[in-house]
C-alpha cells in the first residue's frame, strides 16, 4: 500500500488557531512519513503537553501522551522494548526544554535512535502565551510584561554539547524544506533533534512568518558541511538579521540500543520468556 499524507487522516480537523505554525509541522510530518513509507501501523509518535500535543487527535498512528515534560522517557522505554520501531517525539519548547530539560540532556548523552521535533515558538501557547525557555531577551509576554530579562535557551547548542548526533533547524512556513529535514532526521541512526521555528500567531506578534522569512537563509546553499562540531556551534548561536536553517551537525556513533546487551538476541518484545531465563536473571542478584 502506498503511504501518503491522507493515510493519517482521523476524520477530525485541527482546532489550532488559524495560521498557527503547527499546521505546517503537521503537514510536513505526514508527508515525511509517507516518503519514508512509515504507515499508521509502522511507528510510534510520543507527544508532549501543549498545543503541539493536540496533534495526537489528528494523526492516525500509534501515539502516546504522557505527563508534561516526560515525552522522552516514554519514547526511550518504547525504543528499548522494540528497538526496530521508528519512534518520533513531538514536543514543544516549554515541554521539552522547560519541564523536560533534564530528560533532553540525558537522552542526547545516551544517543538512543529517537527523533525529536521541537515546536519552538518562544511561548507556552496552550496556557495563553507565557514566556518559554527559548523566549528572547526583551520579548514581552503575559508572564514578562516588561520583557524577558534572562538569556534564552538555545535548543541547537544544548543538543550539540549534550551529545545529539543529528541537529537541525527548520521553519514551519516552509513545509517542503521542513519535510526534507524530517526525512533526514528519521533516517539518521541516533538521537536526532529538529528545532522548528513555529510562529504563534495569537500570542507572539513579533516573530511572525514575515519576520522569519526576511531573515532565514539555508546552510545547504553555502559550502557548509555539518561535520565540524565547533563550526556547528558557531552557526547555532547566529541570530538576528541572519538566521540559518538546515542541518547543523551530524555524526555516526553507536546508539544506546547498540550498546545494550539485552537486545543482542532481538527486540525484547519478540524474546520468549521462560522459567529458565528468569531463574538465571534472578541468580545475578543473589
TrEMBL record:
PANTHER family: 2-OXOGLUTARATE OXIDOREDUCTASE SUBUNIT KORB, 2-OXOGLUTARATE OXIDOREDUCTASE SUBUNIT KORB-RELATED. Keywords: Iron, Iron-sulfur, Magnesium, Metal-binding, Oxidoreductase, Thiamine pyrophosphate. InterPro entries: 2-oxoacid:Fd_oxidoreductase (IPR051457), OFOB (IPR011896), PFO_beta_C (IPR032686), THDP-binding (IPR029061), TPP_enzyme_TPP-bd (IPR011766). Its cofactor is thiamine diphosphate; Mg(2+); [4Fe-4S] cluster. The keyword Secreted does not apply. Residues 252-262 have a biased composition (Basic and acidic residues). SUPFAM superfamilies: Thiamin diphosphate-binding fold (THDP-binding). Residues 252-286 are annotated as: Disordered. The keyword Ligase does not apply. Residues 200-263 form the Pyruvate ferredoxin oxidoreductase beta subunit C-terminal domain. GO terms for molecular function: iron-sulfur cluster binding; metal ion binding; oxidoreductase activity, acting on the aldehyde or oxo group of donors, iron-sulfur protein as acceptor; thiamine pyrophosphate binding. Residues 49-196 form the Thiamine pyrophosphate enzyme TPP-binding domain. This is 2-oxoacid ferredoxin oxidoreductase.
Amino acid at each position: 500500500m502506498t503511504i501518503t499524507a491522507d493515510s493519517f487522516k482521523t476524520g477530525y480537523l485541527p482546532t489550532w488557531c488559524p495560521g498557527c505554525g503547527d499546521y505546517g509541522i503537521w503537514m510536513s510530518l505526514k508527508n515525511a512519513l509517507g516518503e519514508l513509507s512509515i504507515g499508521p501501523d509502522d511507528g510510534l509518535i510520543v507527544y508532549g503537553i501543549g498545543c503541539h500535543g493536540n496533534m495526537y487527535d489528528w494523526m492516525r498512528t500509534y501515539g502516546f501522551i504522557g505527563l508534561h515534560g516526560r515525552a522522552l522517557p516514554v519514547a526511550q522505554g518504547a525504543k528499548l522494548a522494540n528497538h526496530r520501531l521508528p519512534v518520533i517525539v513531538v514536543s514543544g519548547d516549554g515541554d521539552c526544554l522547560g519541564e523536560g530539560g533534564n530528560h533532553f540532556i540525558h537522552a542526547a548523552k545516551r544517543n538512543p535512535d529517537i527523533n525529536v521535533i521541537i515546536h519552538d515558538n518562544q511561548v507556552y501557547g496552550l496556557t495563553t502565551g507565557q514566556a518559554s525557555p527559548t523566549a528572547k531577551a526583551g520579548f514581552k509576554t503575559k508572564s514578562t510584561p516588561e520583557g524577558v530579562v534572562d538569556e534564552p535557551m538555545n535548543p541547537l547548542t544544548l543538543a550539540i554539547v549534550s551529545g545529539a548526533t543529528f541537529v537541525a533547524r527548520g521553519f514551519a512556513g516552509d513545509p517542503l524544506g521542513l519535510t526534507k529535514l524530517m526525512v533526514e532526521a528519521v533516517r539518521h541512526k541516533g538521537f536526532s533533534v529538529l528545532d522548528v521555528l513555529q510562529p504563534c500567531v495569537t500570542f507572539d506578534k513579533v516573530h511572525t512568518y514575515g519576520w522569519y522569512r526576511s531573515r532565514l537563509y539555508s546552510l545547504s546553499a553555502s559550502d557548509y558541511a555539518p561535520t565540524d562540531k565547533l563550526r556547528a556551534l558557531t552557526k547555532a548561536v547566529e541570530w538576528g538579521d541572519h538566521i540559518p536553517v538546515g542541518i547543523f551537525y551530524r555524526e555516526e556513533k553507536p546508539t544506546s540500543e547498540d550498546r545494550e546487551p539485552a537486545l543482542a538476541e532481538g527486540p525484547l518484545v519478540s524474546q520468549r520468556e521462560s522459567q529458565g531465563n528468569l531463574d538465571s536473571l534472578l541468580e545475578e542478584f543473589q
